[in-house]
Amino acid sequence: MSFPSPPLDGELCRLRQNRLREYLAEKNLEGAIFFNRHYVYSLSGYWHEQPLTPAAILVERDGDTTIFTHDESADAPAADRNVTYVPNHLFTLKPNLSGCLAEVLNPLLKNIKTVGTAEQTPSALISGPDCLDISEDYQYLRRRKDADEVAAFEFTIQCAERAYATAREAIKPGVTEVEVMAAMQESATLEAGEFLSGWGQDFQCGGPGGFARHGQKIEAGELYVLDVGVGVRGYRSDLCRTFSVDNNPTEAQQEAHAHIIEVMTMGEAMLRPGQSCKEMYDQVNDRLDGWNGYQFFHHAGHGVGLDAHEVPRINPAWDDTFEVGDLVAFEPGLYGPELRGGIRLENNYLITEEGHRQLSHFPLALT
Fold it and tell me: CA-CA distance, 306 to 276, in Å (whole number)?
């Protein structure tokens, strides 16, 4: 039985707005404009469910919070006003929908000199203020998830775990990758009770990952790495499981799986405030890459929330440190021909003052 995604708390949305305003003051910016509907939801509590049309939010440093939609009855518990635009003629969409939105946005910007913008914001259509890209800064600013965001995120995990329960039943020799993907997506959608805001990403069998291939049948002896991000109202979990197609893993596959479980246990002990993410990556990589001749060639994890990959990053290219409130995906893996693909396991965690709380609990077994 599905349950609706828990709504965001209007007071906590206002708290997130105030954090943003403090940042704007530090950077001498007079406002921030986001067209990303995930960010609109996080800051205002309004979910713009129609993916074909844009929504936006303007947070003025010393003024109001305004959302822009074509929905005159938009439910936005943490917005001061809703400015609407017309996206169609007789339900035929206009050719430049962002431009339609910008037409009602720009009059509110006449007295604003500088604004922060982020990815997906069409700054070329914004008339008046200078635009500064704050995409990376905004990830750091919102990395600490509030209680309502954690609840929303846990709901997406619930949807993902139902999808994995379906996958475990659907996987058998001769089934196509597209059939497995479609069955999982159906289950996740039914659990969410609404159109998913995010779905993907790895559905190829016998390899590290990739999109499902048309007509490609899965084979006995292969390992099926499924790495799935389920998004509901902007928040998106990221879980990976690996299954033996014929429920009969080889000795080599079982040994590699057991080793990854050991590395997961080691890594979980490092999920705590103040821990260097680069140091964690180095220790995970030392235990995995080259073990029994297998490879480990990707990051060891990353932050999750409103984007597929967020701060902090368990990756040697960055020097992040875990902080209280981080939502983290940790994903060790091993790959090689003898494994008939590879094994990757991924759970999601909340960094707490005491260390961490594991949020995902679907079994890690190969069968």
Answer: 23
Structural domains in the chain (count): 2
Using one digit for the tens of pLDDT, what is the confidence trace for 182-225?
Answer: 999 999 999 999 999 999 999 999 999 999 999 999 999 999 99
How much is the CA Rg of the chain, to the nearest whole Å? 22
C-alpha span between 69 and 82 (Å, rounded): 7
Which residues constitute the domain of residue 105?
Answer: 10-141
The domain that holds 201 is classified in CATH as: 3.90.230.10
Is residue 62 domain-shared with residue 124, that is, in the same domain?
A: yes
Q: What is the pTM of this model?
A: 0.96
| Sign of CA pseudo-dihedral 49, 50, 54, 55 | negative
Q: Is residue 258 part of a domain?
A: yes
The answer on pLDDT for 1 being more than 70 is no
Are 225 and 210 in contact by the 8 Å Cβ rule? The answer is no
Calculate the dihedral angle through the C-alpha atoms of 42, 141, 278, 363, rounding to the nearest 10 degrees. Answer: -20
The answer to whether the CB of 227 falls within 8 A of the CB of 345 is no
Verify that 177 and 317 share a domain, yes or no.
Answer: yes
> How many other C-beta atoms lie within 10 A of the C-beta of residue 175?
16
**Is residue 363 a part of any domain in this protein?**
no
- Which segments within the chain are labelled E, that is strand? 31-34, 56-60, 65-69, 81-84, 88-89, 92-93, 114-117, 130-133, 198-202, 223-232, 235-236, 239-244, 301-303, 310-314, 327-330, 333-336, 341-344, 347-352, 355-358
